[in-house]
Amino acid sequence: MLGKKVQWEGLVCSVQPRIRLLRSFDERSHSYLGYVLRVNGSIAGQAGEFLVAIGKAAQEKHQFRAGDQIQGASEPVADSRLETAFYYKSSGLKVIQRGAESANDSPPYTGIAPPLEVYRERGHRRLQPAAYGKSCRPCIWGCQMPVEMIIDQWNPDRRKYRSETFCYGPKSCRFYKAGPTRKVPGRKGMTWEEEDWVDEEATAHRD
């Protein structure tokens, strides 16, 4: 039920940035909102894997990482088009037991996720969804973003939604696969293709 928090508890499988992407044809902007925890446990009495969004301050305080046993309370998201998490507005967060510390020197990287400013500074490359699902879901450098697309700048209420996967990690990662270029719909049936140079430009400072 919206507006009502549910209790949950479980094992953290991954910690990744919670970033929302807004596209308007060949323009894009990001909102850095916090972090998404992938948890395997129980929520509202139901067992399984679920995604919980937490704020920047909560991650700074608790330093969650894969392997931690944690608990908290969260609300179901109001608009699933704007979130990849199932639950947000989390509170009562607590580490029940710390997991083993990761050396974080080989992929997938499962140590403590860096501050959001680090993600913003590093920039990202597109990541093939199949590669994300197979190898990158545990990694702190992987990110699945909800994408909101303004189809017509002169009629901004015309919008479409989807999700896209990205990598902020080392360019040398053996699991990385770019996948096909992404296409952004526009007014009057136009389409803009986000070619390789966009990723190259966004991460050129890391060469």
List the domain count as a whole number.
Answer: 1
Topology pattern, helix = H, strand = E? EEEHEEHEHEEEEH
**How many β-strand stretches?**
10
Rg computed from alpha carbons, rounded to a whole number of angstroms: 18 Å
The poorly predicted ranges are none
Question: In terms of structural class, how would the helical and strand content be classed?
Answer: mainly beta
The averaged pLDDT comes out at 96
Strand percentage lies at 35-45%
Terminus-to-terminus distance: 47 Å
Structural summary, described in words:
- The chain is mainly β.
- It has one domain (6-206).
- It contains four helices and ten strands, in the order βββαββαβαββββα.
- It has helices at 56-62, 116-122, 129-136, 196-203; strands at residues 6-24, 27-43, 46-54, 69-76, 87-97, 125-126, 142-150, 159-167, 182-185, 191-194.
- Strands 1, 2, 3, 4, 5, 6, 7 and 8 form an eight-stranded mixed beta sheet that branches. Strands 9-10 form a two-stranded antiparallel sheet.
- Strand 2 (27-43) and strand 3 form a beta hairpin.
- It is globular and about 50 Å long.
- The N and C termini lie far apart (47 Å).
- The model has no long low-confidence stretch (mean pLDDT 96).
Keywords:
207 residues; mainly beta; 8-stranded mixed β-sheet; two-stranded antiparallel ribbon; 4 helices; 44% strand; globular
Short structural summary:
By secondary structure, the chain is mainly β. The chain has four helices and ten strands. The chain has one domain.
Topology:
Layout: E1 6-24, E2 27-43, E3 46-54, H1 56-62, E4 69-76, E5 87-97, H2 116-122, E6 125-126, H3 129-136, E7 142-150, E8 159-167, E9 182-185, E10 191-194, H4 196-203
Parallel strand pairs: 1-7
Antiparallel strand pairs: 1-2, 1-4, 2-3, 4-5, 6-8, 7-8, 9-10
